[in-house]
């Protein structure tokens, strides 16, 4: 009986591990009565197969695989495939000669697991093994993933006593009695890299022992973006409360609450130490799950988009469709902030009964026009004229239909199908309102559109542009999941999927440093428009330098960790001190119109040091009137090739051809 969160409608799956199976039907019936969702069983009958042979680390050369269950008929097919996990039995070899026998033995188990249609098999690795032993096992798993494409392999790593680690732990980890052993995350990183980020490779963190302080920041930074599919909790880690029921220490509770939003499942193992048996463990885990905080509405709206790569919109070159406008319009925060900015602006500036001219440039289906009307009513602006300028003919149709049915619009709104860059306005504006911002601020070509409009003298010399200015921000990102997703991103028109930016709601990812400001643009009235008033902003009239930008950003990253790209955000100053922000540090809470813009790196970069300097370079290049694109590269900790050189994979079109 799956545990359901009372308000979030999310699920927690909990399983029980059996170290031996005498009758798998019994195991299944036992968990059914207790309420567990799945079982983990050994695939091989260890007692018969593991014949001692000291030379080969516990395995004789002629290993014979005997399944732990007598036949696949013991359980129904759908139970095998959905509710049984296999545990592979093997030992790592310390001698190369023993490898073929062990590999053959593991393959037989995987073959059996494939016959049963098990979705996942566990391979336990030991933190006490030498690096070489890990390399042998990683090699075996890498080939198994290729030979058994329907099987997922989950590496089990015990994290006991190693989660409060300082970075020293990673490099000075010593085995009692001598040789160097590896830290749990380094072990996983080795397997993952050896298996080349295989999508069917995941990890289970195993907690067998109870005494430890709370996990460190580094622990979460390293593990929360990894494909941790299971947390394995030994009954030994449970304490007893006053009534004798099993409970977890605060540090385990904090670990669980950080992992649960990432849909991990829990596997309970070990002896039941309570008279009610395993049921009391399950009950407690259900209770903990029910205490997980209720999701915010914006989180719920964003869930279907978690880690889903989207091509950035190009509202200048393309016409947005109705559904996209509808999604924008549902944002509960963005329009409120614009309305507030307009209220403050009207309060500051409207002093007499003269007509206030507002131009909404890129009006879409009119939400900013509505915001302008509401703000003017709130402030008591008596005379107002609003121009709704939109180049998308379909959105203009919507604006005109609103106008037909709304008497206030009929009185004060003029709808015009125009490209703002070339529009000959009948008068100058007191206030220009626009929302042409992309996830990275300037990537929907707000600078090009607004500056062209301003250059034509649309705004009075003392007029106001909302937003007045905006700045993009960037921070380094670790996200193996997004690296995998990008590698699988298929688009025949793109030579390399790592050389284009993506809009993505990053879920399985960790920001590795605070975001730093990148490109800045501001929009002020242009006083002398004589040289621009008749010309469109062709290459002859606008300088290629105007919107060109370059920035070098250096971050301190707390390693060891893998770097996969950079996440981009923006902050916009609408008016006065009213800001709209997607920067996690200054976030406008509840706003979901923009997801971060991800600039990927074509290869994961290892930031090995505890204070690793990461230096990123980014360019915004412009061919006026034609296209704009970003180029990016790293120079620390290593130098990468320039990504998207000359915009060969991705650029934003500013050409006018689409409209003619
Ligand atoms: C991001 S949408 C915002 C729409 C609406 N203002 C809102 O907030 O929901 C940008 C709008 O600007 C329009 N647009 C982009 N470039 C334009 C241009 N040069 N002239 C006129 N409209 C433009 C697009 O067609 C689109 O409707």
Automatic annotation (TrEMBL):
Residue ranges of the TM segments: none
Keyword Transferase: yes
Domain PRMT5 arginine-N-methyltransferase: 300-454
Keywords: Methyltransferase, S-adenosyl-L-methionine, Transferase
Top-level taxon of origin: Eukaryota
Coiled coil (UniProt feature): none
Keyword Transferase recorded: yes
All residue ranges annotated as the PRMT5 oligomerisation domain in the record: 469-652
Site keyed Critical for specifying symmetric addition of methyl groups: positions: 328
GO biological process, one term: methylation
GO function terms (MF aspect): protein-arginine N-methyltransferase activity
Protein name: Protein arginine N-methyltransferase
């Amino acid at each position: 009986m799956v545990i359901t969160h009372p308000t979030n409608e999310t699920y927690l799956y909990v399983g029980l591990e059996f170290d031996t199976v005498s009758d798998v039907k019994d195991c299944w019936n036992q968990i059914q009565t207790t309420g567990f969702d799945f079982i983990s069983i050994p695939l091989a009958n260890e007692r018969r197969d593991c014949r001692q042979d000291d030379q080969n680390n516990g395995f004789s050369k002629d290993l014979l695989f005997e399944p732990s269950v007598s036949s696949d008929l013991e359980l129904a097919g759908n139970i095998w495939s959905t509710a049984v996990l296999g545990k592979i039995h093997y030992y790592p070899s310390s001698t190369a000669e023993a490898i073929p026998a062990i590999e053959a033995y593991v393959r037989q188990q995987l073959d059996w697991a494939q016959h049963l249609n098990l979705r996942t098999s566990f391979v336990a690795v030991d933190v006490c093994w030498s690096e070489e032993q890990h390399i042998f096992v990683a090699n075996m798993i890498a080939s198994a993933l290729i030979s058994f494409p329907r099987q997922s392999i989950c590496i089990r790593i015990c994290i006991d006593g190693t989660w409060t680690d300082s970075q020293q732990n990673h490099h000075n980890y010593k085995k009692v009695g001598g040789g160097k052993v590896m830290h749990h995350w380094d072990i996983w990183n080795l397997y993952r890299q050896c298996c080349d980020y295989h999508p069917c490779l995941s990890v289970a963190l195993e907690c067998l022992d109870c005494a430890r302080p709370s996990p460190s920041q580094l622990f979460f930074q390293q593990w929360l973006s990894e494909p941790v599919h299971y947390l394995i909790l030994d009954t030994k880690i449970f304490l007893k409360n006053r009534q004798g029921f099993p409970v977890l220490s605060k540090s385990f509770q904090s670990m669980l609450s950080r992992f649960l939003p990432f849909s991990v499942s829990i596997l309970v193992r070990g002896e039941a130490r309570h008279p009610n048996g395993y049921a009391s463990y399950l009950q407690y885990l259900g209770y903990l799950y029910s205490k997980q905080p209720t999701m915010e509405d914006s989180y719920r709206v964003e869930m279907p988009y978690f880690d889903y790569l989207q091509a950035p919109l190009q509202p200048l070159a393309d016409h947005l469709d109705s559904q996209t406008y509808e999604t924008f319009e549902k944002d509960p925060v963005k329009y409120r902030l614009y309305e507030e900015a307009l209220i403050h602006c009207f309060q500051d500036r409207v002093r007499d009964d003269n007509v206030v001219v507002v131009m909404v440039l890129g009006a879409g289906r009119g939400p900013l026009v509505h915001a302008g009307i509401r703000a003017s009513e709130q402030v008591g602006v008596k005379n107002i004229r609003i121009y709704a300028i939109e180049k998308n003919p379909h959105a203009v149709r919507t604006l005109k239909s609103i106008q037909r049915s709304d008497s206030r619009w009929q009185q004060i709104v003029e709808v015009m199908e125009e490209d703002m860059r070339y529009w000959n306005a009948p008068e100058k504006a007191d206030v220009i309102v626009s929302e042409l911002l992309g996830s990275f601020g300037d990537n929907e070509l707000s600078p090009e559109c607004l500056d062209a409009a301003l250059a034509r003298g649309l705004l009075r010399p003392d007029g106001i542009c909302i937003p007045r200015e905006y700045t993009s921000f960037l921070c380094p990102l670790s996200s193996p999941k997004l690296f995998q997703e990008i590698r699988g991103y298929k688009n025949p028109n793109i030579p390399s999927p790592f050389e284009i930016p993506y809009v993505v709601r990053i879920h399985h990812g960790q920001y590795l440093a605070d975001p730093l400001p990148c490109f800045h643009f501001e929009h002020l009235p242009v006083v002398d428009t004589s040289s621009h008033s008749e010309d469109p902003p062709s290459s002859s009239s606008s300088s290629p330098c105007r919107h060109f930008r370059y920035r070098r950003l250096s971050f301190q990253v707390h390693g060891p960790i893998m770097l996969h790209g950079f996440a981009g955000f923006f902050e916009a100053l609408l008016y006065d001190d009213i800001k709209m922000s997607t920067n996690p540090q200054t976030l406008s809470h509840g706003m979901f119109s923009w997801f971060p813009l991800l600039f990927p790196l074509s290869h994961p970069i290892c930031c090995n040091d505890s204070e690793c300097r990461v230096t990123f370079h980014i360019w915004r290049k412009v061919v006026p009137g034609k296209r704009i694109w970003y180029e990016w590269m790293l120079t620390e900790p290593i130098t990468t090739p320039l990504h998207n050189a000359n915009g060969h994979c991705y650029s934003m079109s500013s050409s006018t051809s689409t409209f003619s």
